[in-house]
Design goal:
Layout: H1 2-8, H2 12-21, H3 24-30, E1 36-38, E2 41-44, E3 56-59, E4 64-67, E5 73-74, H4 76-84, H5 88-98, H6 108-136, H7 138-150, H8 155-160, E6 164-166, H9 172-179, H10 184-189, E7 193-196, E8 199-202, E9 207-213, E10 219-226, E11 235-237, E12 250-251, H11 253-263, E13 266-269, H12 272-280, E14 286-289, H13 296-303, E15 308-313, H14 320-332, E16 336-341, H15 348-355, H16 357-365, E17 368-369, H17 370-380, H18 387-401, H19 407-421, H20 425-434, H21 458-472, H22 477-481, H23 492-506, H24 513-519, H25 523-534, H26 541-571, H27 575-594
Parallel strand pairs: 13-14, 13-15, 15-16
Antiparallel strand pairs: 1-2, 2-3, 3-4, 4-5, 6-9, 7-8, 9-10, 10-11, 12-14, 16-17
Helix pairs in contact: 4-5, 13-14, 15-16, 17-18, 17-19, 17-26, 18-19, 18-20, 19-20, 21-23, 21-25, 21-26, 26-27
């Protein structure tokens, strides 16, 4: 009996630490109770009795819950006990594991690890305070303070975020920390110094420092910004330690999580300054990845606080494409993902300083779904009709689509992407199957029987007529080349055929259909050529070609209008200028429609 009590006894101070560090709103939300903001507190339908009007209240300030209907209440420990049906010891153990707190036991190794973990947390707190004092000391942190003033950082903001400064000397922290009793090994373990050939050296020097805290507000590392161009890299993060794993930490989440709860979404920005300055302007639901792309752990972390993430990137950001790949993990976790682009030349900080928090909020409200953003980005490419470009865009979009968990949503986006890219849905479903998707709508599942040939789109039918006319009358190729580029065809087979025809017309020797067939290695294309030659030639091919050209220009104008709308939506372009451009394109398209043309018949 004594042995059992020894194993299960948890000191009161440990219980107090677990209760204090466990945020009741966060824990109740993780248990699946959908809390909603109600002033300074939160409300929900009581999980302990049936009701239609919320009477279950959670106080953030007091860290307690109470139901005014069934009169149940308590703290975070009593909630978990009642809701999960756990004993006191089971509850404390569950909360401790969630906080990475080792409970007392006879295991000397576990006890030593916990002691080491706690000591490094304290060492990081010491380093935060030390560097912060350095920044506030005028004859030491003057240059860093000048930079912060130039960026518009207010005194209360730099104190709230505990910004710091590391001097140019290489052993300042080594001396300050060892004088306080910390060992060299502890400083190395915390990632604060490096053991080099000439002895221990501070990791950070001549840098503005951003303390990085986990979601509970415990400092786990630093991000350092160089204050001179010759000091590279521009940003330097703490190395991986037992406290700090950059793939599991989001900058500012400790301060932003309540706002994220209230807003129902998290704004994800590129850097520390973006997050800090938006927070200063009152946009508090903002976090930043610590110099890395989004990980599975990041997605799991965000999922605890919100169903939606809005990625906010500079309009001319080179890193956006790479960032999209990391966002697949957010989709896989079941999060909604939207993209909000700043106007060219602006970042979240500069935009908000110039236009205000309300304008920034309006811009993020217009953020478009990640899938739609990818599709429109692909459509806007000038060379989208090139087979290799369209193929790559389709692969990129498929890599995103496969991460969507909702089957109905995925199916709708397949249809949308196929329409915008002038592809058949079957081609995208084929890509998804190649990526490992086993679930597909019945019409697009792999079949062993021979399927009926796919019907061409209206535009592809016109393209087919034009290519057929040129095969039947090669003398018209030179004329068509002056009116239409082979890359403007949308059907990949016709792009290839047009390119072969254009090249054949460029050669000095007389056009020879047999030479064309010899150069065509695709069996389907050869079949199209032979079929065109066997079909009855219309009486006036010139009129048919002119009609096809006008129809295709009509489609091109419609594509241009779509790109203008997409560009305006993604970039936040001026609405009046966008309207003028659309009116101009529409007038040009109507002028074409008004011209008398030979109406091409349907291609069968």
């Amino acid at each position: 009996m004594n042995r059992t009590r020894t194993k299960t006894h948890i000191p009161p101070e440990t219980v107090d630490e677990i209760r204090t560090r466990s945020d009741i709103v966060e824990v109740i939300s993780e248990c699946g109770v959908p809390l909603r903001p109600a002033g300074r507190d939160y409300k929900a339908l009581c999980p302990f009795h049936d009701e239609k009007t919320p009477s279950f209240s959670v106080s953030v300030e007091k860290q307690i819950f109470h139901c005014f209907g069934c009169q149940t209440g308590g703290n975070v420990i009593s909630f978990v006990q009642k809701y999960e049906g756990k004993s006191f010891i089971e509850t404390i153990t569950w909360l401790a594991e969630r906080l990475n707190i080792s409970l007392p036991s006879q295991d000397a190794r576990a006890s030593a690890n916990r002691k080491r973990f706690t000591s490094l947390e304290e060492l990081n707190r010491f380093a935060v305070q030390y560097y912060h004092r350095q920044l506030l000391t005028e004859n030491i942190g003057g240059r860093a303070m000048q930079y912060l003033r130039h960026r518009g950082v207010k005194p209360q903001t730099l104190k709230l975020f505990q910004l710091g400064y590391a001097k140019s000397a290489r052993r300042d922290l080594v001396k300050a920390a060892t004088d306080e009793g910390w060992t060299i090994q502890q400083l190395v373990d915390a990632g604060l110094i490096k053991n080099e050939e000439h002895g221990p050296q501070d990791r950070f020097w001549n840098r503005l420092l951003f303390p990085i805290q986990n979601e509970r507000g415990t400092p786990v590392g630093f991000g350092g910004r160089a204050l001179s161009e010759e000091h590279q890299p521009k940003y330097l993060n703490s190395p991986e330690t037992i406290l700090y794993n950059k793939s599991k930490v989001l900058y500012n989440l400790d301060k932003a999580r309540q706002a994220i709860y209230r807003k129902g979404n998290a704004l994800l920005v590129e850097g520390y300054m973006d997050a800090l300055m938006l927070y200063q302007h009152g946009v508090e639901n903002v976090v930043a990845a610590c110099g890395t792309s989004m990980s599975e752990a990041h997605a799991t972390l965000l999922k605890r606080f919100t169903p939606e993430v809005i990625l906010v990137y500079d309009g001319d950001s080179a890193g956006l494409q790479a960032a999209q790949r990391g966002l697949h993990r957010l989709l896989a976790a079941g999060l909604r993902v939207r993209i909000a682009l700043m106007p060219n030349g602006e970042d979240p900080d500069s935009f908000t300083r110039q236009h205000g928090a309300e304008a920034f909020a309006a811009l993020t409200e217009k953020a478009i779904n990640l899938i739609e953003f990818q599709i429109q980005t692909g459509v806007q490419q000038q060379n989208i009709h090139r087979v290799d470009v369209k193929t790559q865009v389709a692969k990129d979009i498929s890599a995103t689509l496969i991460n969507i968990q909702n089957r109905i949503e995925r199916s709708e986006y397949v249809k949308y992407a196929a329409k915008e890219l002038h592809l058949s849905p079957e081609m995208l479903w084929h890509e998804l199957r190649d990526l490992g998707l086993k679930e597909a709508p019945a019409p697009y599942r792999t079949r062993t029987n021979k399927t009926a040939p796919q019907k061409l789109s209206p535009r592809a039918q016109i393209e087919a007529q034009l290519i057929e006319a040129l095969i039947q009358s090669p003398t018209l190729i030179a004329y068509v080349k002056t009116q239409f580029h082979h890359a403007d065809f949308t059907e990949p087979n016709f792009v290839q055929l047009a390119q072969l025809l254009w090249e054949a017309n460029s050669e000095n020797e007389e056009f020879n259909i047999q030479n064309l067939l010899n150069k065509c290695h695709d069996e389907k294309l050869r079949a199209f050529i032979s079929n065109a030659l066997l079909r009855k030639t219309p009486p006036n091919l010139q009129a048919r070609v002119d009609g096809c050209l006008r129809k295709l220009r009509h489609f091109i104008f419609k594509d241009m209008e779509q790109r203008v709308r997409s560009h305006a939506l993604a970039e936040g372009a001026d609405e009046f200028e966008t309207l003028k451009e659309l009116v101009k394109l529409s007038d040009q398209r109507r002028a074409l429609d008004a011209q008398p043309i030979h109406e091409p018949g349907a291609y069968q």
